[in-house]
Amino acid sequence: MTGDDPAPRRIQQRVHAEQESTALAAGRDAIQTINTTTYAGPAPAAPTALRSLPPDVADFTGRAGALHHLLDAAGPGRVLSVHTVDGMPGIGKTALATHAAHRLAEHYPDGQLFEPLHAHTPGQQPARPVDVLADLLIRLGITAQHLPATLEGRQALWRDQTADRQLLLFLDDALDHAQVVPLIPSGPGCLTLITSRRRLSGLSGALALSLDTLPVQEAEAMFCRLARRAVNASDSAALTDIVELCGRLPLAIVLLAGRFARHPSWTLPWFAADFAAAQDRLGELRAGGRPGDIAVQAAFAMSYQGLSVERQRVFRLLGLHPGLDSDAYAAAALNAIPLDRARQELEELYTDHLLDETAPGRYRPHDLLRAYARELTRRNDPAHERAQATERLLAYYEHTAHAADQYLAPATRSPLSPAGVPPAAAPLLPHRAAALAWMRTERANLFSCLNISGQDAPRVVRLIAAMATFLLQEGPWAQAATLHQRAAGAAHGSNDRIGEARALNDLSSVRYQTGQYAQAVRAHERALALYQGLGNRLGEANAVFSHGRVLLATGKFEGATEAFERALALYQEVGSLSGQAGALYRLGEVCLTTGDFRKASSLIEEALMLYRECRDSLGESAASMGLARVAVGTGDMERADRLLRDALALYDEIGAVLGRANVLIWLGTVRRLTCEFDEATALHRRALALFEELGNRSGQANTLNYLGEVCLATREFEKAAGLFEEALALFEDLGDSQGQAEVLNNKGSLLASTAGPGEGLAVYRRALHLAREVHSHLDEARALIGAARCQTLLGERAGAVEGLRLGIGILRRIGAAEAEAASAYLAELEGDEPGEPPPCGRHDRT
Predict the structure, then answer these.
(1) Fewer C-beta neighbours within 10 Å, C or N terminus of the chain?
(2) Under 8 Å CB-to-CB from 99, ≥6 apart: which residues?
(3) Mean pLDDT score, 828-843
């Protein structure tokens, strides 16, 4: 973006600017002289400068895309003749426009004129159009005594003089569109390039190019060239750190690279660490590093000083925002101003390139501008005003998060009401989709609010509670667990027993999702004791329900049934329909897992009716998926597919990522059972990616097992073996005995086909032991039938027949579709020629 040594060029440009200013002053003096003296006769024509572009930037670096765009748009054959380059202070507007002007100069033989407009030149007022026109007209040969006295007259003469010329006019550092409109030449052969810190939206017929910070690679290349250092591989990380600490701002890179170049003994890693540790990075970014030298801060100050007093305050207080970006609601809260005015102020700051727009209606300052705003507010705003602004902002986020949580949280959760004064303006959240969208958008800002809440324990507890359901549904769960632990500790320290119990139960839910079952048990047992001590029956029901989920996940089905039945009674006692529906659904899930499809169907149907009665779309989706699993188990694939698609549509509508992942694995199972193996694999892979993103290890284990089943069905035995081993290791780590039994059944089938029936039989017997231990009837039946198949191949027909009869009896009792195929195999075995079970209906899981 600049030459090898920026200092000489800056001096040269300053001298040139002074010369231009002198020329303007001379023009004005000449006009005044004409008005007060008598014409004394012809004078020799003064030489005029028709090629006054600043020197080109030597070894111009970066901005290849922007340069190509500008040259292509402004070159021969162009449609528009006015082009603007705008961007924040120090972004490299003048350097790019200067380089482009030199590249285009040959197409404009009548002259290439440079005019500094001084919108942000220290110690100078912005140039007046009437004075700039005087200078331009004199350059074209108009004598001073023939210059019109008014702006309108000079503008008309300028347009007349440029109508048939081929001129390139470079207007640098424009204040606004009103300053440049009178200066634009009229001729179709003329080109005008304008640089400005403002977006000149009022300049009709102009093509705008807005510059962003440099891409990392271009920023690194620029630093290396200006620092005159070769960078080896070991220094690459430090180089990246340096340009990122500069915010990839060209002016900052120029200053820092120049400083580094003057110290040959410095290394990049040392320099990066030193700059990162600096308390005042803006102060470090001075030419020469001395107070008073040209600095990034000085460039920022000129833009800031051009703002109104009210807008300056808005800019300063935005520096107090702890997050990455903000919207008009947050700005209104910070500044205690009406929403419409906040929108206007943000838009104007965006127009001035003091803010970037990250998304429609959302703004953020460049990192160095943020640091500048924070320094300004520290110097200009009293501490109590800064504290009040921060309190208003935190109250806004807390109240709005609480409002969003009302749509996201299940009806069984008793909310912790926000404290403090509600914000004067808050977004309308009329439904769940809007609430979820707000939470997703503000997630990072909510985390940042927690970081600055410090020792305000009640706010920490309330804000984390308002985020709990959202974090449970979307993760990241590791971060959620840390937050709930913090909330529990804060509540305990402030003797907030209800807040502590709530945080502990939320922690238990997250531990359950991540498969940390022992930690989940400890958390919900502590929550249960607190709720019982408070006499809070709804909280007690929630804690008991949490305990049942862990027992179900670890294969303790009798204990799970008891816990869910107890939770059901408590929910009935307090009149919670949503809680009753959840308990009934989980009781149905116990039956599903153990293979009692008839009872499972009845319980889940009852749960579905209650979910619909209380308009719980999330619960309705889960119940639809549960009924689909019943359909898979009973062999009704058409109904299963329909129910799963209904559930998927509901989950997509409400934005439930975990629910979507669960539906995808069951859709994959249906595709496998109908021998659509490629689609089954694709669906399972999509589900696995979601589970990995969420950190759901149980979901990962199940999906790996399902992928192994697809490979087993397609006889990709090596792949299947690897997948089964991964799944088994995860289930073992989770303490999920039922999951282990299921994988061992699949592994037994694989070994029977590859290593021989003896190896397969040993694994089936391990599966049988685990299945009986946890009372998983379906896995028990599958282990018996798989072992019988191996025994047949080993010549142990009597044992095989006995095992088959036991397995078929279980399958018929629970209503499993596999009973028919197993019965056919038994009939063949009892005859002369035993056959094989069908390949596509053998490895289904429910």
Answers:
(1) C
(2) 56, 57, 60, 67
(3) 53
Distance (Å, whole) CA 34 – CA 39: 7
* pLDDT of 736 over the 70 cut: yes
Measured CA angle at 628 (ends 624, 631), to 5 deg: 140
Q: Would the CA dihedral through 712, 717, 719, 722 be positive or negative?
A: positive
Three-state DSSP at 357 gives strand
Mean pLDDT of 665-694: 94
Residue with tokens 């069905």: 713
Residue 843 banded pLDDT, cuts 50, 70, 90: very low
- For the chain, the domains span 6-37+45-210, 216-294, 298-390, 413-639, 656-735, 748-846
Report the CATH architecture of 413-639: Alpha Horseshoe (1.25)
35/135: higher pLDDT: 135
DSSP conformation letters of 297-340: HHHHHHHHHTS-HHHHHHHHHHTT--SS-B-HHHHHHHHT--HH
Determine the 3-state secondary structure of 148 from DSSP: coil
Distance (Å, whole) CA 620 – CA 747:
35
The CATH classification of domain 656-735, taken from the options 1.25.40.10, 3.30.470.20, 3.30.450.40, 3.40.50.700: 1.25.40.10
**What are the helix (H) ranges across 140-232?**
151-162, 177-180, 216-227
* Rg over CA atoms, the chain: 37
User: In the block, which residue shows the tokens 């162009």?
Assistant: 78
In this prediction, residue 774 has a pLDDT band, given cuts at 50, 70 and 90, of confident
Do strands 356-359 and 206-210 pair parallel, antiparallel, or not at all (unpaired)?
Answer: unpaired
Each residue's pLDDT tens digit, 66-107: 888 888 888 777 768 999 999 988 888 999 999 999 999 999
Nearest by Cα to 451 from 441, 439, 463: 463
**DSSP per position, 741-764:** HHHHHHHHHHHHHHT-HHHHHHHH
User: What pTM, to 2 d.p., does this model score?
Assistant: 0.72
Is the Cα dihedral 308, 314, 320, 321 positive or negative? negative
